[in-house]
Amino acid sequence: MRFLVTRSEPQCSASGQRLAALGHEALTVPLMRQVTLGLPLLADVGYAALAVTSARVAEVLKQDPQADALKRLPVFAVGDRSAMAMRQAGWSQVMSAKGAGADLAQLILRAGVKGRLLYPAAADQAFDLAAALQSAGITVDTQVVYRMEVLGYLPNTIEQALAERQLDGTLLYSRRSAEIFTTLVAAASGLELLRNQRVIVMSHGVASSLPEFVETVIATAPNEEALFKAALRLS
Prior knowledge:
By secondary structure, the protein is α/β, with parallel strands linked by helices.
C-alpha cells in the first residue's frame, strides 16, 4: 500500500520509515517545521506542577538552563508519548492522561493540584487548559516555548499523486495539519482534488477540519499505533 504521511520533521521521516519497515510505501510531506523559542526568564512563583501536551516540549526544556530547577515538579502529560519524552528529559514524577486535552485537565483535577501550574506549550493550542482548570482555582501560566512554521505550497509530486489517485490513504495527525493540508490542496488544484480520496485521521476533531465530502477513517485512539492499524485495515 502507498500512503502520504503529513507531519513535521523528524517525526515525518520516522513514520515513513516505520511504514516502509511494515512493507508499505510512504510519501512524506512535512507540513510544518519547528521554531524553538524557549522559556522566558521565570520568576520564582512556586509552581505546583508542569503540564505538557507535546513531546516537543521535552526537547525544548532539555536545552533550557532553567529546566533543572523545574525537575522537582510533578508532570502531567497529555499522553504516553509526551510522558516518555519528559522522563527521558530527566523528570521522574510523570503521569499520563492517555488521551487529549480534556483528559489531561481531568487528570490534573483528580490529582488535587493546588496553586500555580506551568504549561510550556506551542503557539497554537487545540485545547484551552487554563479555562478548563480555572473553576477549580488552578492558575495556569501558559508559556509559548515553540511555534510551527507552515509549509508554503504543496510539492508537485504530492499534487500529482493525489490527482492520479496513486495513494491508498493520507495520514493526518492533528487538526492543525488537517487545516494546513486542506489549504495547500485548495491553493494547488482546488478542493475537488480531495474528492474520493481516503484520509486516515487521529480523531473526530481532526476529521471535522476536513471538507465533508472527504472519505475519512478515524483511528480508535489518538496515537500512531491506532492510526496505522486503521490505515492498514483498508487493504
